[in-house]
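pls design
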């Protein structure tokens, strides 16, 4: 067995050395192709007056999707300005959702097209777009796919090598050695779900074959994700990834496609998949340009290597915002000092607003006369109260945790919402840094355990044991029979039961994958092997190694959570 392992390692090392000697670091000077990718522009026509949405002191106008609607046009302008000044950017690629209300407000599309036209006229750099789920529909009054093609004709369609007449797919050349396959992955009858079909897949395969026959490398751009960018994305976020994604990825990779650029999920995440034949494909999911972290990517490519760098829109011209009623000097100053920091605060306020909104009885569809109303209303109300509660100090989550024998570690976070929205922000920004034993993950898991105990006991007291508690109060008690019983059992048996240890240990690897990006592909800045490097044998061995590592990581995290993080009996 040891000899076999040594042989495998020797082969891997030999292949690694061969790949290193065969490659030459790609720079702006020796690149064959350079382009920028920015997705989900979500342009909005600015309001005349800001609309109040939530009770945050500064970001009181943050919307539920946390997108900077009124600032969107100014962010797009700055992105295009940066691309115009960067000589290494020869092309601009936009994988969908150019307009936020593109189906119904045609003016948004015309405004974006006007900006792109001015950019191309000024720079001579071609822009290629593809529609997203916000961009067209098939209703009577919708902006239809033919309208989209006409509006954005100068950005891929008018000079396309091949076009699918019934949707927005087309092909175009990028430089002398690459071909862009722009795939319309949408279902115009659905709000977010993909519209992948056998016909579309076969069209991609045919176009990839043509590209290879003509001596060009195929590059794919589409709106929906091809690979998972969340743990079990096909289950928990299924409308953001194409159906049968591994089968589709296998077909595309074996057809010679290595790079795929997507959007829709609004996160910066790069991930890869290796087919049984050893062909590797990379899916670069891109953030929404007009939403924190205001990012886009620039790629430098030659035959040997693919290098990519993440850039940020860190400033905008705030003068036009002064004509919108409602902006304060504090808000405008924050934008001028640190636009990205402002966007992060706006994101956190918007995410909290959205989640609290979704936790309302109305959004849950539970009527006041429903038999379940008191039960759910109490549980949801307590959950929101705990998330808003200070993490530390008098009347805090940490103080409450001690009553249930659950220790909440010290940190700089102020509330449960502060931590939860911070983790969401890192998911969008990429390179999630929170390892399984980090303070953030410990607070998250232990707060979940506390919520389960305190929230459930409150429901018991106020709903199931209401009559008994009323009787106890008349006799001089505090009327919280379930809470007191839960606290006593926690003190005796520990803050978390054996069953809860087990469940938390099972779930923890999923939470870990959300909070810590442990795959081998850097999200924001990295270098990959180019299209001209054949590494199928090494890729197969690496794939086997990664599978084993993933299994070991799951097992390790299970026991870390089960034994170390909570501490048996604590």
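designed seq:
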């Amino acid at each position: 067995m040891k000899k076999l392992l040594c042989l495998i390692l020797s082969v891997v090392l030999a292949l690694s050395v061969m790949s290193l000697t065969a490659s030459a670091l790609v720079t702006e000077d020796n690149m064959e192709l350079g382009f920028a990718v920015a997705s989900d522009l979500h342009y909005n026509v600015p309001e005349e007056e800001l609309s109040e949405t939530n009770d945050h002191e500064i970001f009181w106008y943050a919307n539920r999707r946390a997108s900077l609607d009124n600032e969107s046009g100014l962010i797009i302008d700055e992105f295009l300005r940066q691309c115009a000044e960067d000589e290494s950017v020869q092309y601009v690629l936009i994988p969908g959702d150019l307009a936020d209300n593109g189906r119904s407000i045609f003016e948004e599309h015309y405004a974006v097209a006007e900006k792109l036209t001015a950019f191309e006229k000024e720079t001579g750099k071609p822009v290629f777009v593809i529609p997203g789920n916000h961009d067209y529909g098939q209703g009577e009054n919708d902006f239809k796919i033919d309208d989209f093609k006409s509006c954005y004709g100068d950005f891929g369609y008018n000079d396309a090598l091949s076009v699918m007449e019934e949707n927005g797919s087309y092909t175009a050349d990028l430089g002398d050695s690459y071909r862009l396959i722009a795939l319309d992955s949408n279902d115009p009858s659905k709000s977010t779900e993909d519209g992948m079909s056998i016909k579309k897949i076969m069209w991609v395969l045919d176009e990839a074959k043509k590209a290879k026959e003509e001596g060009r490398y195929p590059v794919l751009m589409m709106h929906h994700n091809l690979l998972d960018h969340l743990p079990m994305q096909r289950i928990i976020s299924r409308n953001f990834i194409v159906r049968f994604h591994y089968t589709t990825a296998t077909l595309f990779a074996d057809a010679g496609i290595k790079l795929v650029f997507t959007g829709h999920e609004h996160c910066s995440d790069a991930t890869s998949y290796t087919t049984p034949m050893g062909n590797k494909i990379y899916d670069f999911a891109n953030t929404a340009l007009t939403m924190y972290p205001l990012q886009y990517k620039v790629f430098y490519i030659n035959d040997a290597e693919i290098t990519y760098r993440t850039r940020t829109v860190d400033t905008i011209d705030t003068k036009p915002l002064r004509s919108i009623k409602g902006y304060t000097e504090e808000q405008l100053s924050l934008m001028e000092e640190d636009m990205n920091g402002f966007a992060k605060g706006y994101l956190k306020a918007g995410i909290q607003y959205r989640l609290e909104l979704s936790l309302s009885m109305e959004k849950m569809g539970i009527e006041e006369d429903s038999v379940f109303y008191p039960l759910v209303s109490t549980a949801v109300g307590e959950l929101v109260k705990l998330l808003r509660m200070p993490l530390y100090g008098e009347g805090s989550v940490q103080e409450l945790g001690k009553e249930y024998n659950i220790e909440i570690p010290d940190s700089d976070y102020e509330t449960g919402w502060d931590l939860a929205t911070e983790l969401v922000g890192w998911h969008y920004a990429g390179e999630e840094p929170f390892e399984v034993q980090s303070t953030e993950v410990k607070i998250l898991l232990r707060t979940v355990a506390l919520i389960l105990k305190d929230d459930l006991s409150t429901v018991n007291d106020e709903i199931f044991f209401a009559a008994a508690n009323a009787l106890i109060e008349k006799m001089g008690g505090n009327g919280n029979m379930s809470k007191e019983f839960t606290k006593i059992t926690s003190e005796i048996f520990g803050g978390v039961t054996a069953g809860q240890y087990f469940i938390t240990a099972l779930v923890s690897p999923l939470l870990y994958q959300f909070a810590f990006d442990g795959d081998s592909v850097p999200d924001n800045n990295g270098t990959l092997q180019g299209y001209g490097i054949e590494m199928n044998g090494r890729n197969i061995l690496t794939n086997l190694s990664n599978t084993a590592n993933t299994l070991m990581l799951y097992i390790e995290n299970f026991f870390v959570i089960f034994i170390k993080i909570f501490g048996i009996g604590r």
